[in-house]
Specification:
Radius of gyration: 19 Å
Helix content: 55-70%
Order of helices and strands: HHHHHHHHHHHHH
Number of helices: 13
Distance between the termini: 31 Å
Structural class: mainly alpha
Largest sheet: none
Number of strands: 0
């Protein structure tokens, strides 16, 4: 078993240098949002920041272990799929209502405040949360049980995320009214299978980092979990959804919020 406190040969200088391309992309995206009048474009760019960070780190850091190709493939699949899906989902719909609320609550001059409130913050979070992927590719340890467990967890997370998104897209295309609620498929067992999938795959990345000697990066998946549950994920999405869609209130009492469980009982887990 890998020592939790073991340290991968992490290249700190290469990591610190990642701030420049990440915040550069955030700044350019902010300029584009001014032209479009829509800061929700940051959602399409969020996952791409992780792919950019890993690609730059792989190009600049040394030495790198055998996990480089594996982790790059996993990050690329997750990043490109999520960015493409969100871009397709949001196309032609204007600014997401959650960002509209942020805009209203931060007037006047939200256009300038959004540089740090939205784009700078997203860039900073990506810079921090990407650490397990960097630690994983830095380690030279041979494959072990944690690697297999990490990949299995990642695959399970991708299943929940991809299938959950597909089921929701199909439901939205065929529902009779906006008040209808999806209660079938994965959505029968958790109100947010896509967020739960995101949770699993980032803990999968952490297991790969742990196997490589990067146990110290545990704060990154913990931060992601906190964001998904209490900040930009479940909590923000459900803040006023019961008021906008009354049928959702019944759904809340029947289905777990995050962790999948048997339907039909009230739960906030």
């Amino acid at each position: 078993m890998v020592d939790f406190l073991a340290s991968a040969p992490f290249d700190l200088q290469a990591y610190l240098a990642l701030a420049l391309p990440i915040f550069g992309v955030a700044f350019i995206s902010w300029l584009l949002s001014l032209k479009l009048g829509d800061v929700s474009i940051v959602d399409s760019l969020w996952s791409l920041m992780f792919l950019l960070a890993l690609a730059v780190y792989l190009f600049t850091a040394e030495p790198l272990g055998w996990r480089s190709g594996l982790v790059l493939s996993l990050v690329a699949l997750w990043s490109l799929r999520l960015s493409g899906y969100i871009t397709w989902r949001n196309h032609g719909k204007g600014e997401d209502h959650r960002y509209q609320a942020i805009r209203r609550n931060n007037q006047p001059h939200f256009e300038f405040k959004s540089l740090y409130l939205v784009f700078g913050l997203q860039g900073f979070l990506a810079w921090v949360i990407c650490l397990p992927t960097l630690a994983a590719v830095s380690g030279q340890t041979p494959p072990g049980p944690l690697d297999y467990a990490g990949v299995a967890l990642w695959l399970t997370g991708m299943f929940f995320e991809v299938v959950g998104d597909a089921q929701l897209a199909r439901f939205r295309a065929n529902r009779g009214s906006k008040n209808e609620v999806l209660k079938t498929g994965l959505w029968r067992y958790t109100r947010h299978p896509n967020y739960f999938g995101e949770f699993l795959l980032w803990w999968g990345f952490y297991l790969l980092a742990l196997s490589a000697g990067g146990g110290w990066t545990i704060f990154a998946p913990l931060l992601m979990t906190f964001l998904l549950l209490r900040v930009s994920g479940v909590a923000l999405l459900e803040k006023d959804i019961g008021e906008r869609r009354p049928a959702y209130r019944e759904y809340v009492h029947q289905t777990n919020a995050f962790f999948p469980g048997p339907p039909g009982k009230e739960s906030t887990a």
